[in-house]
Design brief:
The protein is 33% helix and 26% strand. By secondary structure, it is of the alpha+beta class.
Length: 465
């Protein structure tokens, strides 16, 4: 296990495990953290996973971890790594099973007072309209041609079918699709899993949340983003559902079988990878893009479902502020050692935070969420990346021992947070105490200057699977 003595503080809120820590490291491992957050990080294997990431062939500059880091599959959740294009490796574990899990923020012209005495009804109507948990879509069961169009076009498919507004695409990361998607190479098993899941929320930590803008930190940026005090906004957090999970499963197996072919020594076989320029690497990148497009289309359809309820109840229109992915691989250019290099960025539980870009950081259902803005410093230090949430500090199993779901629901409603959930057990697993302090996590990325605070959001209505 790691201790503080294994780390060197190189600037405020940034710590380093040097390349000399282990003989097979190709770059150092760097962690954005406070001393208090470090004590939580030391409790699991996430730092060991980060050091393992630093051994990947072609990795550049450093393996990074955000303050919401916790143990995941192969890569820690909260991890960022860049490998040199095109011969550096791509690793499914560096993207995760829920490909393009991400967050969309919709803003309204309503103030919180309009929702007074309507939160309970609003929660019920949203829960009725948006299938969650293991429920299939009641609206769409896609045929093969429709599904392939979705995998190719992403959110644009939804708008073409009337599930959105024409300018939505202008406010989605990558305009809601990756152009290298290869729908034909997505396995039939993966397609079968996604066929009846478009427009569905899923379970776990996925949610739709109606919030109020509780505090503005930067008036100028808030005005640019169209945010104001006491405004009602909506967060949508979900991904590619069973389709993305199956794409990851299929390709981890393929890459495990190809490790010997490319002479890739790994400290952990879960880090299975292949050069992007190889058949296995390029095939995975292209089917990952198809799954990412499915996720953008999924959030597009859920946004339409939310808009339908708000139109019915408040005659309100919802405008997209932004939509960010936090489990994805992309080709980007970054300055490394004084040179502009093209790299394969892996962000797993990490959010793109380019200079001036909205960064949406959801908290747990009983705490705040934040809107931040990316900075020039993020471009220099972390490949234009920030945290993606609070990050778990307690396993789901441990949370079940500490929390009773029914009591949690009552306690949250006493705070003015109305919950609709398909699973009391799932509610307990996602209890606020299972997560790190979102305020501290955000203060770390702000202190490290990789993002700036714009607004704090307070939950009023939460829909979970």
């Amino acid at each position: 296990m790691f201790t503080k003595n294994d780390l060197k503080q190189i600037k405020p809120f940034l710590w380093e495990i040097p390349k000399t820590f282990r003989q097979n490291m190709n770059v150092p491992a760097r962690i954005f953290a406070s001393e208090k957050i470090l004590s939580d990080i030391f409790k699991d294997k996430s730092l060991l996973q980060l050091v393992n990431v630093a051994t990947l062939p072609g990795i550049q500059k450093a393996a990074y971890a955000m303050p919401d880091i916790h143990e995941g599959y192969a890569f820690p959740i909260g991890g960022v790594a860049a490998t040199l294009y095109p011969d550096g490796v791509i690793s499914p574990g560096g993207i995760g099973y829920d490909i393009n899990c991400g967050v969309r923020l919709l803003k309204t012209a309503l103030t919180k007072e309009v929702l007074n005495h309507h939160q309970g009804l609003l929660a019920r109507r949203l829960f009725e309209e948006i299938p969650s948990g293991i429920k299939p879509s009641r609206r769409l069961k896609l045929d093969g041609k429709q599904l392939e169009k979705i995998l190719e076009k992403g959110a644009a498919w939804g708008i073409e079918q009337g599930y959105g507004q024409g300018d939505d695409l202008n406010f989605l990361e990558s305009r809601g699709y990756l152009e290298n998607a290869d729908p034909e190479s997505v396995s039939e098993i993966a397609k079968a899993r996604g066929r009846n899941q478009l427009g569905t929320l899923g379970s776990g930590n996925h949610f739709v949340e109606v919030d109020q803008v509780e505090e503005i930190f930067d008036d100028s940026i808030a005005r640019q983003f169209g945010l104001f005090q006491n405004q009602v906004v909506v967060l949508i957090h979900t991904g590619s559902r069973g389709l993305g999970h199956q794409v990851a499963t299929d390709n981890i197996k393929i890459m495990l079988n190809s490790l010997a072919k490319y002479h890739i020594p790994l400290p952990d076989r879960e880090l299975a990878c292949a050069p992007l320029s190889s058949e296995e690497g390029s095939n995975y990148f292209n089917v990952m893009a198809a799954a990412a497009n499915f996720a953008w289309a999924n959030r597009q359809l859920i946004a339409w479902e939310v808009r339908k309820v708000f139109k019915e109840m408040f005659d309100g229109n919802l405008i997209t502020l932004y939509d960010v992915a936090h489990n994805i691989a992309k080709i980007e250019e970054h300055e490394i050692e004084g040179q502009i290099k093209k790299v394969i960025i892996h962000r797993k539980g990490a959010t793109r935070a380019f200079d001036g870009q909205p960064v949406i950081i959801p908290g747990s259902m009983g705490s705040a969420s934040y809107v931040l803005v990316g900075t020039k410093e993020a471009m220099k230090e972390a490949f234009g990346s920030s945290c993606h949430g609070a990050g778990r500090r307690m396993s789901r199993h441990a949370a079940l021992k500490e929390v009773q779901g029914k009591k949690l629901k009552v306690d949250l409603e006493a705070q003015g947070i109305f919950i609709q959930s398909g699973s009391i057990k799932g509610l307990a697993e996602e209890a606020p105490l299972a997560y790190k302090d979102i305020h501290e996590v955000v203060d770390i990325v702000v202190g490290a200057q990789i993002a700036k605070k714009v607004a704090k959001l307070k939950p009023m209505v939460v829909i979970k699977g």
